[in-house]
Amino acid sequence: MARLYTEDLNISYGERLIVRDMSIEIPDKKITTIIGSNGCGKSTLLKAMTRVIPHQAGAIILDGRSISRESTKALAKKIAILPQTPESATGLTVGELVSYGRYPYQKGFGRLTSKDMDVINWALEVTGISEFKYQSVDALSGGQRQRVWIAMSLAQETDMIFLDEPTTYLDMAHQLEVLELLQKMNKEQGRTIVMVLHDLNQAARFADYIIALKDGQIVKAGASEKVITRDVLRTVFQIDAEIGRDPRTQKPMCITYNLLKGGNENEKTANHVSALVGSHS
């Protein structure tokens, strides 16, 4: 049994049901990527699994206990989350922002201990931003700022890190820089990484496990070869894709695609949903 899983999970915003009856396991010490069209429930699922938002029914289990029963500090020692739009760090230095990751371990007046400083310096070094420790976060490039937020997550010393679209607003080089850093953390430190990505080829290249969502339900989950397929992409994104192989990684790759048009194509896609949902494992 995985350390983190959901059972018949329902998540709503007001009266609108976003995620329906979802049961999924997050593989330990692997990189899991959640894909799907806008509004399908990707970020909602991520937020619920980290208790940023509540769920209305079902259960989210971590280490044999419902996360709703964990204290905030106890949960923060197990799970770190980097939201899609991190809060402003105006006026903070890199070192100061990374030090916020030590909050779950602070007592009393919250002074940083020598152990805290060791962990902060380690997080700065691992993410390659030690030289910016005393610089303002505002003065950094987008890719460098994203590394600072990841370093703050590392400073929490959690086994699991959740990231909501960590490559948003970054150019191609900085996107690759961030994803390679996450992959390195997974391979060398055994961290469980769960992230939402829009780029299908990045998802296929870096993920060990992909969860494809449509309308709050799982269409398919598994290795990239099982998920990045013509049928699944037709169902999830309403596109007719040509799938090939990345010549460097041998992972599946979306080479080109067209939008599905016309009633017949939409009918075919509807039929694919019933065939795929429920057979995602």
UniProtKB/TrEMBL annotation:
Which biological process annotations from GO are given for this protein? iron ion transport
Report the subcellular localization: Cell membrane
GO molecular function terms listed in the Swiss-Prot or TrEMBL record:
ATP binding; ATP hydrolysis activity
**Keyword Ion transport applies:** yes
One Pfam family, please name it: ABC_tran
Q: Which UniProt keywords apply?
A: ATP-binding, Cell membrane, Ion transport, Iron, Iron transport, Membrane, Nucleotide-binding, Transport
What is the membrane topology noted in the UniProt record heading this document? Peripheral membrane protein
Q: Can you name this protein?
A: Iron complex transport system ATP-binding protein
List the source organism: Bacillus oleivorans
